[in-house]
Design brief:
The complex is a heterodimer of chains A (about 325) and B (about 210). With about 325 residues, chain A is an all-alpha fold. Chain A is about 75% helix and about 0% strand.
Amino acid sequence: MDVIDKALAWLLSHPSNLLWGLAGVVGLCTLGAIAGMILPLVQPAKDHTNLRERVASWWVMIALLAGALLIGWPAVVILFAIVSFIALREFLSLAPTRREDRLIILAAYLTIPLSYFFIIIDRYGIYLVFVPVYCFLVTPFLMACMGQTRNYLAAVAMFHWGLMTCVYNVGYAAFLMRATSAEIMPAGPAGLVFMLLVATEFNDVAQYVWGKLFGRRKITPTVSPNKTWEGFIGGWVSTAALIWFVGPLFLPVQGGALATIAVTLPLAGFAGDVTMSAIKRDLGVKDTSHLIPGHGGVLDRIDSLTFTAPLFFHLLAFFTVGRF
Amino acid sequence: MKFLRFLLLLLVARPIARFLTGADVTGRKLLPLKGPAIVAANHNSHIDTLLLLTIFPSRAMLRIRPAAASDYFLKDPVIGWFSRNLIGIVPVARDRVGTGEDILAPAREALAAGDIIVVFPEGTRGDASDEMARLKSGVARLAEAFPDAPVTPVWIQGAGRVLPKGEHIPVPMNCAVLVGEPLHWEGHRTAFMDGLRESLLALKAQAPPLRWG
């Protein structure tokens, strides 16, 4: 009993808003699971395996993220470093590479522990420039040193794109855990990460649902033919409303600052989704792997996050989180 | 020693395989779980062996025996001990072909004991260029000797990028492992080999594009 008491005390030592938020997400996922059980009874003709797989995968992802958020910033940093690694591996495996590039690929992976190391030692200024300036310069230099000039610029650009999206931009989600604020954060730094992830994923799901229900006019016919204006606008409005009404429980912002986040974050999510679709179309694949049943690869799941994480971070930094 | 091999495969080899390749398996349910059975895969890298040793459910893991060239794996005593006892190879003396020696005898013994033999019918590792070499017919002779053993074709895409022949540093890159419907011996070697070749090429056609120049 002692152990249970201690675990309960540990759980309750977290901000109550965070606990209620996590409980809300578990509730939503339970609704999804119930839908997965009821739909086959209502529409027995249709195949609902994908929905069930998606929900089952959501349970795993929610468990991992909730566990990390409750444990604290070291766990969140490790979790996102692993996400970065798997996403970068997916990206580099699909992108055109050559046998001569093997060592550069290895070097690209090395930027993950380095970049996340600057989060661990909490040096925001160095984190900010490490990938966009120094990796940006070193990658082409290393390739030049190895005497590769064939298709040089395209190969360099490919590495830059992978590092910026999978390592640098995703890292911002983990860096939120180190935030401090002059104003009170109602759910601690974990509340910031929580709101970012919930808003980003809610936007993906809302766009999908609005598109399925009312979608008629294609928005990006050549890149992602399943996306519609109705899905985009429905998702935008729903997510903005979510951020506007739920945001004050987790974020140290109100009024104009909150409205700015509410309006821009769904747009960034949509942009990330479409951009990654364009890349996948160029590479000739639908999913980046089959790691997450029902969803595809890690890169498929975090495509929106690679755009929303830096925007969310910088907006908070601009409006409130003083030290960044 | 069996227990040691089990621990090594489960706690060392499997995490390494996941880290290096992502082990993106399609059709996992088609893998045989008990012997005698034969798994025939294309071969570009030592990573192929690592993957095939670790993608099976743990209850079938100790049954997996990769057929491997004795002239390569058994020439050094340390590597030889490791190959025999921990990797669990079945030696194939490919340098003794034509001497009248029955080089498939160890493989047949393993099949008779109920093991799952992994064979690479191309005979040796190719380059990562994705081309399949001419298949050698040893696998047909094994299937003929054990007509009830299913022969499961497996296409491994991209292992040659993780560790190409001649390189020593592995670089993590996703590999797709595609498992096909098992084939059965129907009495003719050429027909059997043609069927195996077609199955492998059909699996290859489903694999994600490999942009490796």
